[in-house]
Every structure is written in C-alpha cells, then in structure tokens.
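Transposase IS4-like domain-containing protein structure dump, as promised
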Amino acid sequence: MANFLADRGFLDGATLYWLDQQGIAFVVPAKKKMLVHRLACSEAQGKKGHVQSRTRTVTHGHGKRKSVEHLTTEVVGIENLQLWDAYNDPKAARKARRRGYESKPLQAIVVRMWENRPATPGGTVVFLTNQQVRTPLSVFDDYDGRSLIENTLFREGKQGWALESIPQKNQRAAVSHIFITLAMVAITTAYREWTRREAEEEAEASSPLERRLGRTDLQEPQGIRRWRRDLKNAVRDDVIVFQGPSYGIFHVMEMMVLAGYRLRRLPEELGAREAIFARYGIHPPP
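structure tokens r here:
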C-alpha cells in the first residue's frame, strides 16, 4: 500500500503515525475542533505557507443553451504543525501532558476556495498529511480521487451490483463476497465491451443488435443501472422463438407478421409487411 485516504471517522493519531513509519503517505480531513485545524487556518490567513490555485473550464448544455463556467480552486500548504498530541508513538504519547512534550510534525492543506465556493469562517476544510505540501494541489487531488473510489466502486457495488449483507461476519466471508461481486462486474463489463464492438462493426445504423441494445451513442459510458434500464426498454417488445436446437429473437409484431397474421399498423422501424419477409429471404404469402 502506497497511499491511505480516509474520512475523519478514521482520524487516529497512533495509526497515522504507524503509517508514516511504514513509508505510507496519508491524507485525512481534520476535525474542526482540533487545535491543529485552528492553527492551520490561522497560518493560512496570515499569508503563510505555499499557495497554489487553478481554474478549470466546464461546459454545460448544447447549442443555444450552451454555457461555459470557470471553476477556481485555491489551497494553501502549511508545514511542520505540532499541535496534535496523539500523532506520535503510543508510548511517547502517554507523556503528552508533561512539560516539554512535542508531538511529531504534520503538514496541512487549507482549502480557501473549492470550485468557486469560498471557505467560511466555521467551515474551512483542512487536510492533514505526511507528504510535502510545496505543491498542495497534488495532495488535494490525491484525496479528491477518493470520491472516485467511493462513488464508482463502493456505492456502485452496493447499489448497482447488489453487494448487500455478507453471508457471515468474518474476514473470509467478506473477502469472498467482495471478490464474487467484482468477478460479476468484470464478466459483465467484458460482455458489454464485446457487444459494443459488435455494434460498431454493424454497417447499418439501425442494425438489430444496436436496436436491441438501445445504444444510440456507443461512445457514451454508462453505469450498470442505466445500462440495465436502457436494455430493458430496448428489448421489452422482443420475443425469443425456439425451434429444436435453434432460436431466434424477433420483435413481437415482426413475429406476428412472419406467423401469417395481418396487422393494421406496424412500427415504422420494422417497415412494411413485404420488407419484413424480404429481410429474412421469404416470399410473402398471398
């Protein structure tokens, strides 16, 4: 493990000190009541530390409704903060109330502005880290990447992939349950990639495969829940017909025409009665 990113619920000085001794970089948000949080904010207001900012451009909407927004983020890196007594070897931390005790130094990232949202007096976000903060945005981005793990893996796994209760409350059961779920994700992703490539190779824009998969924009990424919903909507009118070891997938109206029934109206995408028979190389009955 090279990096440890956690929320403030895992803010434990002894554990973070151990990570530092193992050479593992960490980034965790400080609690607002901590002295180290107050000191970091005070030094940032006093124009101390390493200031770094950036502006990124975001486009919203299309055509006449298209708009451009410039989002600015500014952070300050503060070095050598020693006001967190718990950040030390557990044996040494027992002497925290004695005269002359010094905790181990930490660095902090004070967020002055986060995508145009300025920090408020009581709501300034401060991150604690053991990394160098001369370029504080790099450390800030490390923690911001945690949201990708939280939203695209954990939340998607729990909600989109039904990663619910583990069979037993022990490590082996939890690991097995997680890996089975990840195996399902890998297999389904491989299938989706295969169908995407198959659809791209289709010459016609309205090929049966694209129509059944409901993919109007093959380059647009989709989460599993949206993909399932779109797939369900795309195939809700389809039927599977078995004949011995063979089978075929047809639109229900298409199947009715091939079975000899005359229908008053047909969906436009199916074409006329004669076109349906011609599609399968069959001469329409009189």
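The chain has a mean pLDDT of 83.
lmk if u need the other ones
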